[in-house]
Amino acid sequence: MSKEKKTEIDFLRSEVKRLREALNELTPSLSALLKRRGFRIYKKEPSDDLLIPEKKFIDGYYRMLKRYSFRLFLRDVIKHQPLFMLQQVTRYATKEVTGEYINYLVKTGLVARTENTFYKLKKGPIKSFGETLEWFVAEIFKREFVSEAVWGVKMKRPGIGGDYDLLAKIDGSILYMEIKSSPPKQVYQKEVSAFLDRVYDLMPEIAIFFMDTELRMKDKMVPMFEDELKLRFSEPPEVIRMERELFEIQTERPKIFIINAKDSIINNIEKVLIRYFRRCL
Length: 281
Prior knowledge:
Blueprint: H1 3-26, H2 30-35, E1 41-43, H3 58-65, H4 68-79, E2 83-84, H5 95-108, E3 111-113, E4 119-121, H6 130-144, E5 148-155, E6 163-170, E7 173-180, H7 189-202, E8 206-211, H8 221-232, E9 239-243, E10 246-249, E11 255-259, H9 265-280
């Protein structure tokens, strides 16, 4: 890429960011958009299981979380807490890379070295990686897409479970994202059903079922959605492949997508937003 072309792309990106910031100021807040639909947030962003460092390390930690191998490494650290050895957390990266990850956690104060060959997770017990992943995805919306976003949301609704992993305001539209840190084999039909219940209760413009995995979605997740749609509709909408492991359910509204982390969470969310807004033009 030429220097001139790169300069032009950087300029366009900065203009998009500036325009989105201006649009955010002109459109109602996320809480106002929810209130219009009869929803009110009464709890959000719990911290009991949140594994993040102190503020001065947050930017670097956010960049590290973009790495799929680092996220898998953190899952193993949580699994083996409070004490773990290097050999226990090297399933998804080389010994050298894992050593770098451990040194990074020590530097940020999340992990401490013991007198022997063990390391200790300083905060805990942490039940799962789920809250940290929700926090990270919310940061993606704030940093990369200049969007208001909240995670770990609880809303009081009769009959429908009021837990929403992530809600974001995208240019005046509501986006709801279900965030799964488990692999497909640990996700069950009832979770797909609960996701669709919440989607059709809130009726966001965009709904995303996201799994933090690079495994195939076609093998298990897509068939579960197809089965659930057959139970809900006499003429069930088709689940089509957008590309690779990104899928769209062919409904007029809300627009529903099924995605994973293959290549990049950021890129995959961007592809969903591009598809949504191009269809709305």
